[in-house]
Design goal:
mainly beta; five-stranded antiparallel sheet
Length: about 190
């Protein structure tokens, strides 16, 4: 491994992983992008350090937030109600979630006439698996279903259109829960 690094150094080839080379940011990921809270208590600060005052305490594992800026260790995020705070990178996960804007139904297929498997209330948080043609496949507890993308915060307008961003060539610059385990245990405890 050390020999490979030395060869790369001598040839001027970057030794960084290919995944971090996609976008011109500290992480190599796009800004803006949606992520979610990793813990059941996360502090949102007024600036990018532990010395800045705590503006908000978020108490909801999986709550989606939108990264709108970043430093190597801190992410400037917007929550579903429009508040903007800074969070440490270790308090966030790339697994996508959505926040329900209006009561909606989960269907067995991406079709308004398909059987309804659950009613989802405003304010609920569901894991996002994928979006396709204006519909998103979502998961909560042991239930999975499809709902129209415009019922959620945490989905970009391109993902609401037929051939949405998660299904197009831009996919490499977007993150989705579809590449992760469908059932991921929720972390407990709190983090700054």
């Amino acid at each position: 491994m050390r020999a490979v690094f030395l060869i790369c150094l001598l040839l001027g080839v970057p030794a960084a992983p290919a995944a971090a080379q996609g976008c011109d940011t500290h992480t190599g990921l796009p800004v803006p992008r949606f992520v979610s809270l990793k813990f059941n208590e996360v502090r949102g600060r007024s600036g990018p350090s532990f010395n800045h005052a705590v503006k908000w305490r978020y108490q909801r594992t999986g709550l989606p937030v939108e990264v709108i800026g970043e430093t190597p260790d801190w992410r400037r995020v917007r929550d579903p109600e429009g508040e903007v705070v800074w969070m440490h990178r270790r308090t966030l996960t790339g697994r996508r979630a959505v926040w329900v804007k209006t009561d909606t139904r989960l269907h067995t297929r991406p079709d308004e006439n398909a059987s309804v498997i659950a009613l989802v209330q405003t304010g609920a948080v569901l894991w996002l698996e994928r979006c396709r043609s204006g519909w998103c496949r979502l998961q909560r507890e042991k239930r999975r279903g499809w709902a129209q993308a415009d019922a959620f915060w945490g989905v970009y307008p391109e993902e609401m259109q037929p051939g949405g961003a998660l299904e197009s060539a831009e996919r490499a610059c977007y993150r989705s829960g579809s590449n992760q385990s469908a059932v991921e245990p929720a972390p407990t405890g709190s983090a700054d």
